[in-house]
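Predict the assembly for these two chains.
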Amino acid sequence: MSQRPDVDMVAMSIIDSTMTAVCREMGIVLMKTSYSTIFNEALDFTCALASPEGEMIAQAEFCPSMIGGVPLLVRSCVKEIPLETLEPGDVICHNDPYRGGLHCPEHTLIKPVFVDDELMGFAMTIGHLQEIGGMVPGAFAGEATEIFHEGIRVPPVKIKSAGEDVEEVWKLLLANVRTPRYNYGDLRALIAGVDVGERGLANLIRKYGKDQFRQNVQDLMDYSESRMRAEIGAIADGVYRFQDQVEDDGIESKPYTIKVAVHIQGDEVVIDYSGTSRQALGPINATLGVSYSAAYNGMLHVTDETIPKNSGCFRPIRVVSPPGTMLNVDYPAPEVGGNTETHCKIAGAVIGALAPALPDRTMAAEGATHTNFVFGGTDPESGEAFVCYAIELAGWGGRSFADGNDATDSINGNCRVVPVEVFETRFPFRTESYILVQDSGGAGEKRGGLSTQRTIKSIKTEITGSQMSDRHRNRPWGLHGGQPGGLAGTWHQQANTTSWHMIDEAFGKASPSKWSNVRIRPGDSIRFQTPGGGGWGDPRKRPREQVVEDLAEGYISASSARENYGLDGAAEAAE
Amino acid sequence: MLLADYLVGIDVGGTFTDFVSYNSETRAVDVWKILSTPHDPNEGILGGLGRFDAPSDIRNIRLGTTVATNAILERKGATVAYVTTEGFRDIPFIQRGNRRSHYDITWIKPKPLVKRRHCYEINERIMSDGTVHVPLDEDGVRAVARSIREDGSIEAVAVNFLFSYVTPEHERRAKEILEEELPDIPVSISYDVLPKWKEYERASTTIADAYVKPVVNAQVANLRERFTEGGVTDQAVVIKSNGGEMTLEAAQRTPIQMTVSGPTGGVIAGKHVAKLSGISHLVTLDMGGTSTDTSTIVGGQENFTTDYEVEFGVPIQIPMIDIRTIGAGGGSIAWIDKGGMLRVGPESAGANPGPACYGGGGERPAVTDANLLLGRINPDNFLGGEMALDVAAAEKAIASVAGPLGRTPEETALAIVQIANNNMVGALRSVLIERGLDPRDFALLAFGGAGPLHAADLMNDAGIPSGIIPNYPGQFSAFGFILTDARVDVQRTVQMTSKRFDQARASEVMGALIETGIAELKAQGYVENIEIYRSLEMRYLGQNYELEIPVAFDTFTDETTPKVWQAFHDMHLARFGFNIPREVIEVITVKATVVSLTEKPDLATIGKAEGAAEAVATRSVVFDDGRHETPIYNRADLRDGHAIAGPAIIEEPVSVTVLRPGQPMRVDQYGNLLMGRIAEES
């Protein structure tokens, strides 16, 4: 590919890597100073830099679900807080899904970057606050039916003005949540992050001069665009279709269908969601920001991962999403799970659609749920309220060249699971076991990755728990003859009993995977199992030595070796 | 006749084994290097020592080695059994669940250093507050020992129980039983290796310790035998990742301590140079063929960390000098990506085929080729003239990327150097900015074969005002080994808050740690010149990462304790730009470091300059602002007080120092080259 001769590819490369390094520095400050485990252990946050027009010009890789939302977030902020009213030292706080946000827990902090009194861009941190008020501790109300159930909505407001805290805003934010001390710490961390970003970007601009910086950043976005166009151009023209389901919405026991038509037209792609189910009563809906992000996410997974991630990447991608559907939800429907449960199924469907065209760049379904268990209570010793948002890892899908990875965060996150020792130090549960689930990886020539199962027992105080999950009824799909991955499940065991019951049975809930405010008493146990990854290719074609090794390692059982893989003498091999 | 009395530092690297000797009678320092012998590293060590006429003249040998790291990287360690709390044998396989890179659908999760079928569970459970929920099932441990014996393939055992960092009794008892039942198999317990929270990180580190133990044991035993045969002293020590030394016996007990052995030498040597030169803040840059290591010395002290991954997702969290490595070196290859953008590294031409100019068949342009084309390297004086460089081959290689870029080879060579420099500036920034350190307060100490070549540009690009090119830049790590002390780091998790701080308990833990450290050194024979450093790791209640606050006293009292809290608030402000003055502070870990200072070489000074430095030649060299006819100096000719202003090139056998136009340089009394601001200070 040839470049315009006047493009300074060297300066552009240096500016790109320096901006990415600045974003990484922002992330390290967030990780080291924040309070919530979802922040500092799970790393559920994003750091980005944007142009004054709202184009994302750089980001660091923390949580991918958020990056597609950056342009919308900046634009919605400056729509309500005009650019000319911004001053150095201002910081805007914003979380409203109906104003470009993704879901209420995700708070965006935006700081304008001025060089010699001229607005040159924005530093942004987006982080998941684990408690934001609303009908359940931890925001993931599986049974919410309005956005108001999901916690406090924060339209773009200045949380700092000209370097000073806006006390009224802080008071309002902290009065509406169960854990104000934690939220204060997390917001301070998010602000420290944008401070680092502001300084880093301003220094870079001073070094290169404003004109050169502006030109290089435009060139950089053009560059990413041209790389993305080259990748799309290499895919055979055509319409590629796929569909998946969210099994229910937490309110009614019926599935919702996501339909994806990927139109490859030369070096552009249109991703059309027409035919997708009407919006749901419950919180599985996606805002347009989420649907865009998911389309981008899917395409970024099937294209060259070394393309610099900025708004230029998104220019050749267009999205059609009819209003009033679960992928372009109308106010004031609930949508907290859209960002975690629906996003990954959309991205997965884009990847699945392109599987015939890109056999070596795609994979069978990953678990596509974060399992999202949230709970809260009061510490009997300190009297302080605690709230936790815990995620779980699932199996990833098999690929033409490798088995699916075991126990990996879903495609729209890149979170780490919280260590047992950190979890128990912070919260009044004892973990009884945390294991890989045998046979949960879909059988295939390339086996799906294994899922996990965790059993915890409440040991001190009554806890209120809620969950937003999926794949308890629909198994993750296989590809090219591979079998689907194992189902997820959540079970409850009452204190001093030995039998386990599905949550929906135990508590009379409409959904096994989406439920609110279950009371977990001391001695009660809960068991969370995640879905396994789908298999790739005919399991009978799996090399025999790999089947024998899987059996020896306990990844598959003797009966699966025999029935799915056709291994003769499987029982003997297990010896 | 004087008896010769040598101290020898040896750094066994991938390509070369470096040697530095110090003769304490004549105060002479000698350096040499030989090709490494990866099939049998001890052969290279003995080969290099062949330089001594009488091996018995060697008093002490200090060895830096990559044997432990290589065993892990090449997956050539022992077959390990993992023994853990019932319900948790999958922790090494589940890991933490994040991916190296977001959008890389081709990523394959790393496998642990243990097979799942060799993982065993024991019924026992300790809670987060240290209480015993389920007592250790001793019969269960014996049953596991039997299974291990029957398996027959197990060569080492790693034990890691939940919350053992709070209450280690179960692990200790399990070790006793296993050693009783399996007398020939070494047992590592997590409390000895890494008494810190987070079970996966602790599991990974403990398994790695067990994994390398048999390999290290065999090699150390073999080395000892060969020393005896060759009449070499048995006074040999190994350099630990924390920059301290330990005896060979100690290395056999906890081999994981030597994972990052080699690179620490450069930091130790840097610390010594800083002390001699009266500089308190240094950032070190060790640039070799395939990678560059950076680290800092602040206020005369090196920085430590326990955040280390031998590869993505495989943490080894032992106390070590905080050294960041990036894949950028003289061998880093320049290439054009699919979008037409010039990139440098991380792929390296390595030693074989090496950069195109080595004439080893390399056809792709490396950073060294670019430096050659810019005139910064002399093709006839590389490695002291032992290797003639092929300029035409370098030109051809550079032309292969210049064409698509639409630039001349010379412009392209300059761009390659600029991009490589920017990668390194990123690494320098990360070691400084992450800790809230201002580059303007620092001097850059550059070494390694390629460090001095890039130092001037890096100072400029990273905003570091001063630079130092030390003596022996090509063997600087080995040089550092003759300067090490014996050092033991001990720590204990306590978990208390500023609201309910038990001063008596904190004082007692601190006292016990110091005793442990002293005893451990004493067991290795170090009893003199003991120095003790104390610190607390703490954070705001709710945070998850700690800041380490130095403590200058043994006993916590109503008078001393508040100073610790204030120091934390101050450091939080300095590092992160804010603090929360009324917030409760949580103390997580009490740490103590016990050092036994060893005798340091008394380095000789060089003669005073008489008259100006004289160039031996001139050459046309390309800088950022264009071509300059540049004087070339021979480093061996330079004396104390010589001052040179750039543009200039200073050549020595294993390296080349470049001065940018206008940049001042002065030689100090030890022969260090001082660049930039520091050259102008008297």
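Chain A has a mean pLDDT of 94. The radius of gyration of chain A is 24 Å.
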